[in-house]
């Protein structure tokens, strides 16, 4: 089904006590594309990512992950669906310090109960520039190297979708650029779909498209984003966030 979107959200809402984190979000993330999700602090970016990825369940609405509606799934079916199609990269790497690089990379497949594809794991470690570091512990690596291990771990399971939450948030400029380049390659060379939350207009400039959230709604979007234009749009969105004009169209 080549035209099935990798992820689709249909009128998704999610509230926490006293807060409407997502107030009715519909969005399509086509297969083989790289989308950045931006918006002011508290606008619902992480909640959107978590609902899209099956890490959280919406209150209402539908979430189609690789064509399957996961919004109504309960554990352990939700975890199964997530492991089958999604890979994750978080700001804080989320590596296990007690395991070597190699075992960190293979862990999601082991947890999923599938036989790890070792040849492919070696290939992805080479792709991210870590061939030869298989025996190192995460604590022996730089932040940029740790994030590249996290990316290798995500890629090793050949996910259809990689969800990245502020993947460059803890990295310096050069290390951040490397990680963004590798996410771009995952899309261009491996056909993956990337959905990335970021605060950084330069990071969003690596994407094909940026969707902007304010007050739990998508208020505008931009294709083929250039960093300067993204920064200007963010300023416009932030100026309207929290006001009744949450439906701002800043184009
Ligand atoms: N587990 C939770 N319990 C209670 N409130 C939550 C929870 N997660 C998120 N929220 C609230 O929902 C709203 C949206 O949060 P979310 O983390 O999605 O925003 P964000 O745009 O990712 O913010 P930031 O850029 O600061 O990370 C916020 O008001 C937040 O305080």
Automatic annotation (TrEMBL):
Keywords: ATP-binding, Nucleotide-binding, Transport
GO cellular component: membrane protein complex; plasma membrane
Domain ABC transporter: 7-240
InterPro entries tied to this protein: AAA+_ATPase, ABC_transporter-like_ATP-bd, ABC_transporter-like_CS, ABC_transpr_LolD-like, MacB-like_ATP-bd, P-loop_NTPase
GO MF annotations, alphabetized: ATP binding; ATP hydrolysis activity; transmembrane transporter activity
Keyword Transport: yes
CDD domains per the UniProt record, alphabetical: ABC_MJ0796_LolCDE_FtsE
KW Transcription (keyword) present: no
Superkingdom: Bacteria
Listed Gene3D superfamilies: P-loop containing nucleotide triphosphate hydrolases
PROSITE patterns: ABC_TRANSPORTER_1, ABC_TRANSPORTER_2
Pfam families named among the record's database cross-references: ABC_tran (PF00005)
PANTHER family: ABC TRANSPORTER RELATED, IMPORT ATP-BINDING PROTEIN
Protein name: Putative ABC transport system ATP-binding protein
Lineage: Bacteria, Bacillati, Actinomycetota, Actinomycetes, Micromonosporales
